[in-house]
Design goal:
The protein is mostly helical and 209 residues long. It has 8 helices and no strands. The longest helix has 32 residues. The N and C termini lie far apart (78 Å). About 8% of the residues have low confidence.
Length: 209
């Protein structure tokens, strides 16, 4: 009888309850997945509109007076942004093991890479605006709407990552059993990287095919 009582006490004690993992996916995970699915639908509509209007316009694309998009800066942007998912994965796996230093280092690396991507986007816009704007023609509208909408999502992701990094530096409640926020931000950042690959093919590569 005493042994049974000890087992019940051990199973229902404060320490046991505080370390028990919840069953199933947390609400935050489902919320982020649904948000990403919604944003993915918006990007699919934008990229679908690009191809529809392109083939409706005629054989020459971009329209006369606009050169085909240069590839150097977009390829460098890709080389900066897509690998930035790796430090996020490294940071998430680290905090799952309670290694806060890995969380900080991984988030900091991703933040620097994301900011570098945004700086390159500004440089590209500075060069392109000298030749065409959003109101020049349908190509200009599509180019700036698609790339600008993605740039906005990168800024949102950088805000999330910066907030996590600041919280971890302040000694926030991160640990082996408290990493849901890191996982949710990682899901969003992977989505941002994946969408850029689709944009690279659609905006920059497809006019050369």
């Amino acid at each position: 009888m005493t042994d049974r009582g000890g087992i019940v006490t051990a199973a229902t004690g404060a320490e046991a309850l505080s370390t028990e993992l919840p069953v199933g996916r947390p609400t935050g995970w489902w919320g982020m997945v649904m948000f990403v699915a919604t944003e993915a639908t918006l990007f699919a509509c934008l990229l679908g509109s690009y191809f529809y209007l392109r083939f409706q316009y005629g054989p020459q694309w971009p329209p006369a007076g606009i050169d085909k998009p240069k590839l150097l800066i977009p390829l460098v942007m890709t080389a900066v942004l897509v690998p930035s998912s790796l430090p996020v994965v490294w940071a998430e796996h680290g905090i799952r093991r309670g290694q806060r230093w890995r969380l900080r280092a991984g988030l900091a690396a991703t933040l620097v890479m994301g900011l570098s991507f945004m700086a390159l986007l500004v440089i590209e816009y500075h060069e392109d605006l000298a030749h065409f704007t959003m109101t020049t023609n349908v190509y200009g509208s599509l180019f700036y709407v698609v790339t600008g909408f993605h740039g906005l999502h990168v800024l949102v992701g950088l805000t999330m990552i910066g907030w996590l990094l600041a919280a971890s530096l302040r000694g926030g409640s991160f640990g082996a059993h408290r990493h849901e926020r890191v996982r949710n931000v990682a899901i969003y950042w992977h989505f941002v990287d994946t969408v850029w690959v689709a944009i690279l093919f659609t905006i920059y590569l497809s006019p050369r095919l």
